[in-house]
Amino acid sequence: MELVSGHDLTHMKNELQLTGSDFQLDLSKPVYMGYMSVHLRTIDEYQSNLSSLILAYLGPIEKLLNGSFCSSVLNLKHGRMLLFFQPNDDFRNAVQSELAFLKGFAEDLMNYSVTVLHWNLNLILYPDAVKWNQVSNTYYQLIQHPEIQNLKTNWPSSSVTVYTKKEASNLLPKTSPDAKGQTERQLQALSFSLYQNTPAEYYKALDQLAKECCTLKSMHSLDAIHIYLCISTALISHISLYHLQEKLAARIAVYPLYHLAEFTTWEEAFRYLKEFSKHMFDLLSANASDKSETVIRKIKDYIKEHLSESISLSSLSAIVNYNETYISRLFKQSTGVKLSEYIYQERIAKAKYLLSTSSDSMQAIAAAIGFDSPQYFSLVFKKSVGITPSEYQRIHYHESMTELPANE
Predict the structure, then answer these.
(1) What count of other Cβ atoms lies within 10 Å of the Cβ of residue 26?
(2) 1-173 has which fold?
(3) Res 20: pLDDT
(4) Which of 40, 108, 122, 243 could cross-link 45 (Cys pair, CB 3.0–4.6 Å)?
C-alpha cells in the first residue's frame, strides 16, 4: 500500500524495513510496472482465501522470467495485482528491448492462466521503467486504461496490452491539475485504501473530500452529490462483499448512505460517513482478528500433533493456505514468539512430560519429539533445562512413582 499511496522514498524504505518485508527490488533503480486483473469464475472463488490466488501465480512468474528480471507482486485484493519488474545487469546488457521481453512474458503468463488455472486475466504493462517516486502516478494511469475500465461493464476475455507513449502521456498528471482531476484522484485513493483496509489513508482521503464538499454550501450541488454518492457506492460494495450489513445495521443506520435528504448540511453528511466508516473498520478488524486466531490455532494444533516429525515453514504454509513470510510474521505478532522458538519450546515441554511419566529410553523419547539422535537431544535438553534428560527422568519419574497410592 505504501508504494501506491504517494509516500516519499524514505518513508517506503522505512516501512519495508519495519514490516520485515521480503520485497527484493532495489528502490534506487527504476522499475517496470504492470496491472493484472484475474477473473474468477464463481462467488465461492471470490470468497476463498485470496493468498492462495497469489501463490498460484508466484511460481509461474518466477519460472517464466527465468532469472532475467527480479519481480515482486503487490496484492490489491479481489483478483487484482500490481506487478513490479527490474532487469538484472546481465540481461540488460544482452537484450535490446526489455519491454519486448516483458510483453512476451506477459503473454506466456496469460496462456498459463487460461490453459492451466482456467482463469482469464487482463494484464496492462507500462511502457517505461519509472522511478519509485512515480509509482503512485503510474498505478493510477494503469487503472484508468480503457482495457481496465471496460471490465466494469463487459464480461472479460484474456488480454495483454502495452500502453502506447501517447496513452501514457495523455494520462500523466498536469503540473497544476484542475479541481475535478484532484477530486477524482482523491476518490480513487479512498476506494483503494478501503479495499486495502488501511483506515489512516482512507480517512485522509475522506477528510479532503469532505473539505471540498463543505465549501459548497448548497445541498443541491451536483459536484458534491457526485462525491457523496461515489463514497457511499464504494462503502455499499465493501459491506456487501464482506457481509457486514446486519452487523452494521445493529450499530448505525445504513439507509442514509443512499438517502441524502436525511442531512441539512454537507458537514452533517460527512460526520455520518466518518462515523459509519469507523463502525465498518471496527467490524473488519474484529473479523481479521478472528481469522488470525483461527490461523494461529491451526498452526499450534498441527505442531502439537506432529512433534515427532520435521516441521517446516512450507508444511505449515500448506496447512493454513498462507505464504511462509506471512505466517511467520503473524505468529510472532500474535504470540510474541518466533515460530521456530515455539516449536522448540513444545518439543522440550513434551520431552519433560514423557521423561516424568514413562521409563522409555532416551532414543524412544528423542524420536517422539522429532530428534534423530539421542545425543543431540541430550545436548539441546540440557541447554534448555540445565540437566540431562536422564537426570530429569531419574528425578521426576521416580517422584511421580512415589506419589502413587499404595495397593491395598
Answers:
(1) 10
(2) Alpha-Beta Plaits (3.30.70)
(3) 39
(4) 40
